[in-house]
Amino acid sequence: MVSFIVPVRNDAARLQRCLVSIARNGTAGLSEILVVDHGSTDDSVAVARAAGAKVIVVPEGRVARLRNEGSIATRGDFLAFVDADHELGAGWLSAALETMQPADVGAAGALYVSPPDGTWVQRMYGALRGRTAGRTETRWLGSGNLIVRRKAFEALGGFDVTLESCEDVDLCERLRSAGWRLLADERLLSVHHGDPASLTKLFRAERWRGRDNLTITLRHGLTLRDIPSVVAPVVIVASVAIAALAAIAVPFAGGRAVVALAWCIAAILAFCGIRGLRVAASGRVRSLVSLLQAFAVGATYELARAAAVVSRASHHRDRAVSLRTLQAPLR
Prior knowledge:
Elements: E1 2-8, H1 12-23, E2 31-37, H2 44-50, E3 54-57, H3 63-72, E4 78-82, E5 86-88, H4 92-99, E6 105-109, H5 120-129, E7 135-137, E8 145-149, H6 150-155, H7 167-177, E9 181-185, E10 190-192, H8 199-219, H9 227-253, H10 255-284, H11 288-310, H12 316-327
Parallel strand pairs: 1-2, 1-4, 2-3, 6-9
Antiparallel strand pairs: 4-8, 5-10, 6-8, 7-9
Helix pairs in contact: 1-2, 5-10, 5-11, 8-11, 9-10, 9-11, 10-11
């Protein structure tokens, strides 16, 4: 049996679409659905119950705790973690069970797909993320579209509840260290309707995610593949600081300050440009406009990750709830 665990907070409309997509997979007799509500004040709980899902309420803690509490309240041999803003493709359940059949596979999933009717930022962000092709071994799987073998999950103590984000990266590293294989399978299609719709939202999301991403990377040991993602934010932050000092010193230091300023700006543009080239290489770029869009998304991503090194951001959903709370007396 597969236990679908769906955390939610004030996201009734997208939750309904998510639960419909799970039901569309023909889950009767093969699965159970549990919605873990994080103190919603909208119709999320009513939507979940109307869809036939079991509901538990966990008002405190981060999403890692919600998922862990959900695992305790279910009984499946496999735990399918699906976020409320995701929509599963047809055949997801059967493909997931087939992929998990080898006894040494600890988890499976696939890279999220951007919404087909999304903004240009969502399309380019999806291109930056990439897309799973075929079935391959992988180092990391996102927790919004993830199936895990229960005995492996419980042996590791579940998600790390001290992490605000990137708890999925940490879990995958621990699974691999324990000897479990991770498989990415393109048949486990999941559309992520929660992809940032604008550059501002993209910056906020990556700034929120960046701090824990760096923490997890250093926690589990650097590899050659990790070095660019660690070096780039640090170099960009240092370059911004040096460029600011050089700009202040221009009237006093003359040519040397101008050279320092130029080198720092070049370093920032280079790192942002490399990320933009990755987006451009995805095949989504077919015009000058889309090329500029690719570089805008790549630069925003890198600058946000750099900002995360020196500042802490709240999750965009926490910010939205806070704004609604502040506005309530005005209604």
